[in-house]
Amino acid sequence: MASCKATDAVFHVDPPPAGKKLREAFYCAHYIHSHIAHFYALAAPDFVMGPTSDPAQRNILGVISKVGLQIGGEVIKHRAYAQSIQASIAGKATHPVGGVPGGMSKPITEEQRKDFEEKAKSCVEFSKFSLKLFNDVVLSNKDYLNLITGPIYTMKSYYMGMVDSNNKVNFYEGDIRVVDPEGKEVAKFKPAQYLEYIAEHTEPWSYLKLPFLKKVGWKGFVEGKDSGIYRVSPLARLNVADGMATPLAQAEYDKLFKTLGGKPAHATLAFHWARLVELLYASERLLELCKDKEITDPKVRTIPTATPDEGVGIVEAPRGTLIHHYQTDKNGILTKANLIVATAHNYPAMQMSIKKAAQGLIKKTKDVQEGLLNMVEMAFRAYDPCSACATHTLPGQMPLEVVIYNSRGEVIETLSQNLR
Amino acid sequence: MKTLILGLGNPILSDDGVGNRIAQELGNRISSQDITVEETSMSGLSLLDLLVGYDRAIIVDAIQTTNGKAGQIYRLTPEAFNDTRHASSPHDVNFATALELGHRIGMPMPGQITIYAVEVADTSNFSEKCTPKVRKAIPKCVNMILSELNENH
Predict the structure, then answer these.
(1) pLDDT of residue A25
(2) How many structural domains does chain A have?
(3) Which of A190, A199, A200, A198 lies closest to A162 in space, CA to CA?
(4) What are phi and psi of A115, to 5 degrees?
């Protein structure tokens, strides 16, 4: 979707209302399937089964055994609903082919709209159920709530995300807003201005660059207001916004910040909670769009007439802000591209979250078990990272090594998994 | 027997698209109404949506093993992927977990699933063509699958 918006900008063309609405409906459906998969398959096992439980049980199979097989069916059903909407609008759910410069390649029919509306209604109910499950399993458990709000998984940083004209969360279109660790707005900019606000640091040990706020500067891997490190994520989006644009999600937004002690919230594990608030917003917004009869207007594309040259497109991907910046020749052939994906924005913060978790969890007298590896993993799993997108390497594994040193710098224990 | 032949892969990532190529070739050669040939770039939980409702599924994909030689073809069953329940991706569940989930929640999963995996050399460079040794394996794998279909028809 960032690519669609970047090519709109390259060709200096604005899609008609139905084109924008179709894109946003497609994108809400994408959020629904992505957030459901992340929560139930990747986040819930740590909480439903327990962070140090047997890894053979700590997965989606363990979760559905515990919470009920029927819920497993609902998970699969609603993911499939979302993907069927995506495929129906844009040809395919994965690698869709519906977006073109100036809009979409085809309109939808009244029959499709009605089908989407029914599915969106069901997704709203499932999202409400998912938040109730989170409340019952996680928030009602004092140990888990302490884990979420405790220091091991807390990091004070700047936050970045997209907001609409009312400063409400928006995934598809708006300005980029940045708040400091105290929640004060420090920047609000249009996509085309991103290079005035973001710079990228490099380190010799990684070929993934480390973005930071240009005006604050790179101060190393340190937290706080003097460090230009910022985070993007579901929680970052909630932190930068004044609220949600739909009523049920707004109520959940209020509850989240009330429970976490106000805005901004710095609890990395609360990314999962924010993801469920967004699941509800995406479902409500999808329903709104599907009830809007204009979405079936056959005019879904503005044909470009200007000579293409350069453009920036930004959307909020499920895991955070996604920037595409293209330059082309006069025939529209790409000559230069710069992408900053969510995992790259979060790369500096992920390093620090992992270190903080490891340092907080490894104690001199503590027997180090497999569960420790998982609790370190939890620090970066919260970011829903896509290292393949960010680094273009495809290991297909989750290599991890924890090396424990004593006060003399001697290695006393090493735990590892999937190292080659 | 209602059969699905499903080619998996990314068709623009060199050898990763070998499953797609084999599915396309089979699609050109099979005319039985009982057999559906599809290709997809999806994985994990999304595969469940495609597998339901068939009696038998033949999945064709690329594979990379430690000592494998490009172009080798393996005929496997889902149990071959059962060695770990750890998440293999930070985004989705692995293939074995997805299948197990489908069974446990009572989805109408195929009773028989066979996987044809072709050892690949390059899954890093963008190309719509496979590397030479993998390309040579395509007609061989197509024939193996056609023979299996004929034997069990």
Answers:
(1) 98
(2) 1
(3) A190
(4) -60, -45
Distance CA(A51)–CA(A38), nearest Å, equals 16
CB contact under 8 A, B90 and A64: no
Report how far residue A138's alpha carbon sits from residue A51's, in angstroms, rounded to the nearest whole number: 12
pLDDT for B74 beyond 90:
yes
Map residue B95 onto helix, strand or coil.
helix
Is A375 part of any domain? Answer: yes
Nearest C-alpha in B relative to A399: B88
Domain ranges, residue A376 = 357-417
Which residues on B lie below 8 Å from A70 (Cβ)? 105
Quick check: is A169 in a domain? Answer: no
Contact A95 B48 (CB under 8 A): no
Q: What is the ipTM of this complex?
A: 0.80
Whether the CB of A415 is below 8 Å from some CB of chain B: the reply is no
Q: How many helices (H) and strands (E) does chain B have?
A: 4, 5
Q: Does A394 touch chain B (CB under 8 A)?
A: yes
Token output for A176 = 């980029």
pLDDT at position A394 over 60: no
Q: Which residue has the tokens 């609890």?
A: A267
Nearest CB to A83: which of B46, B86, B88? Answer: B46
Three-state secondary structure call for residue B58 = strand
DSSP for residue B81:
G
Instruction: Tokens for B22, please give them.
Output: 């084999």
Beta bridge partners, B6, equal B38, B59
- What angle, 0 to 180 degrees and rounded to 10, lies between the N-to-C axes of helices A17-37 and A69-90? 150
Residues B92 and A59 sit within 8 Å (Cβ to Cβ): no
Q: Is residue A395 part of a domain?
A: yes
Judged on CB neighbours under 10 Å (0-12, 13-18, 19+), A143 is exposed
* Residue for token pair 């997108």: A389
DSSP strand pairing (A198-203 vs A185-189): unpaired
User: Nearest CA to B145 among B60, B32, B31?
Assistant: B60
CATH number belonging to domain B3-151: 3.40.50.1450
Q: Decide if A199 contacts A229 (C-beta within 8 A).
A: no
Q: Are A105 and A97 in contact (CB under 8 A)?
A: yes
Share of chain A above pLDDT 90, in %: 79
User: Structure pTM?
Assistant: 0.90
Measure in Å the smallest separation between the Cα of A294 and chain B Cα atoms. 30
Q: Assess if residue A382 is contained within a domain.
A: yes
Average pLDDT over residues A85-110: 95
Q: Which residues contact B136 (CB under 8 A, 6 or more apart)?
A: B71
Among A34, A35, A42, A46, the residue to mutate for chain B (most B Cβ within 10 A): A42
